[in-house]
From TrEMBL:
Example of a GO biological process term: phosphorelay signal transduction system
NCBIfam families the UniProt entry points to: PRK09191.1 (NF006623)
Name listed for the protein in its UniProt record: Response regulator
Source taxon at top rank: Bacteria
Coiled-coil features, chain-numbered ranges: none
Keywords: Phosphoprotein
UniProt keyword annotation of Phosphoprotein present: yes
Keyword Phosphoprotein among record annotations: yes
Modification sites for 4-aspartylphosphate: 192
Protein species of origin: Allosphingosinicella ginsenosidimutans
InterPro entries: CheY-like_superfamily, PhyR_sigma2, PhyR_sigma4, Sig_resp-reg_PhyR, Sig_transdc_resp-reg_receiver
Amino acid sequence: MSLGDDLRPHLPFLRRYARALTGSQQHGDAFVRATLEAIVAAPDQFPRSVDPRLGLYKTFHAIWSSANVEEEPGHAAAGDAEGIAQARLSRITPLPRQALLLTAMEGFTPEDAGYLIDASPEEVESLVAEALAEIERQTRADVLIIEDEPIIAMDIETIVRDLGHNVTGVAVTRDEAVQQAMARRPGLVLADIQLADDSSGIDAVKDILAQFSVPVIFITAFPERLLTGERPEPTFLITKPFQRSTVKAQIAQALFFDSATVPA
């Protein structure tokens, strides 16, 4: 099997990670593209002593670390997601954010995450704690949950409240979601894909975004269906069944890059 065949199944998830790390589909995809270009240009330098997924993420981190992480290659325009996050980025380094997302969202062990960011497992755990504490201190929001499974909705609501956020409502259909969003504008939306009346959470989000801008985190059992390379694609995506730490990490990142929650 060729190197390309080995890496192909992992690319949608690397794009998910890159987007969460940068807070932007455009910026994240640019770093992934640069990673693939580096592999094509020098395939003999690809780490062959580890699992292909680890090697892919290791190459990505080499590209990310060598770049100015405050800006996407080509320079981010003032006022975009990276610029908005400048106040926070000055108080939390990229390394803790990487450790948090690699373990909480991508499911790497502290040992594997340590390999990726050149840290010991103990250092990874310390970095994760640092990132969560710092980001959670800086972000608070009203959250709308769009989820038709009661147990999952209750679990998400508990996580959201534990983080110090306020839940404005839990909607189970497209129409209900839009109605609640219009009645009380949320600062964050957590949306399932398939809703109670066979309506679409994607359509609900489109209706809401047509009225105002708000960060959105999609929740689905099939993330690869939303990471096909076609447009539009979500910046923030949670896979079912999810870990509580994954939801916390995604909420923190989504709000981290949202202009409405930039501290004064």
